[in-house]
Amino acid sequence: MNKKWLAGLSLLLGMLVTSLPMSAHHAFSAEFDATKPVRIEGKINRMEWINPHSWLHVDVTNEEGGVDTWMVEAGPAGVLVRRGWNRNSIVAGTEVVVEGYQARDGSNRVNGRDVTLPNGERLFAGSEGPGAPPEAGN
């Protein structure tokens, strides 16, 4: 093959690969530890209905009486809606109990498993990706 043809082909393949959408998705076990369950209680600060993961921001009163904001990773927006979530079930100021798994780096980040609302309703938020613990009952 001639060098110009090979260079052109390499350039075309490089352009094709870089134009493909990059995925921000990750394996559960890369960021969270299934052996470190966490339970937090607090008020919803805000909810981000985004993909590939939605995020709840929960204000939790710490031992000193201050407030720490925890980031709770949940499934994609469409998946949460199919599980019974809606924009009115999680609004700022709602008291919640979140059960999930601590971030490996020890930060105030959790992979959310279940979110319990004031009326006792439990919404499944958990990831079903590689390394994630199975949903209860499965």
Secondary-structure blueprint:
Elements: H1 3-19, H2 28-31, E1 32-48, E2 55-61, E3 67-73, H3 77-82, E4 95-103, E5 109-116, E6 122-124
Parallel strand pairs: 3-5
Antiparallel strand pairs: 1-2, 1-4, 2-3, 4-5, 5-6
Give structural notes:
Helices cover 20% and strands 37% of the residues. It has a 5-stranded mixed beta barrel with strand order 1-2-3-5-4. It has a domain at 31-124: Nucleic acid-binding proteins (OB fold (Dihydrolipoamide Acetyltransferase, E2P)), CATH 2.40.50.140. The protein is α+β, with helices and mostly antiparallel strands and 138 residues long. It has 3 helices and 6 strands; from the N terminus they run ααβββαβββ. The N and C termini lie far apart (56 Å). The protein has helices spanning 3-19, 28-31, 77-82; strands at 32-48, 55-61, 67-73, 95-103, 109-116, 122-124.
Supply Rg.
Answer: 20 Å
Shape field: globular
What series of H and E elements makes up the topology? HHEEEHEEE
Point out poorly predicted stretches. Answer: 15-25
- Computed structural class: alpha+beta
Give the number of helices: 3
CATH architecture assignment of the domain at 31-124: Beta Barrel
Specify the biggest β-sheet: 5 strands, mixed, barrel
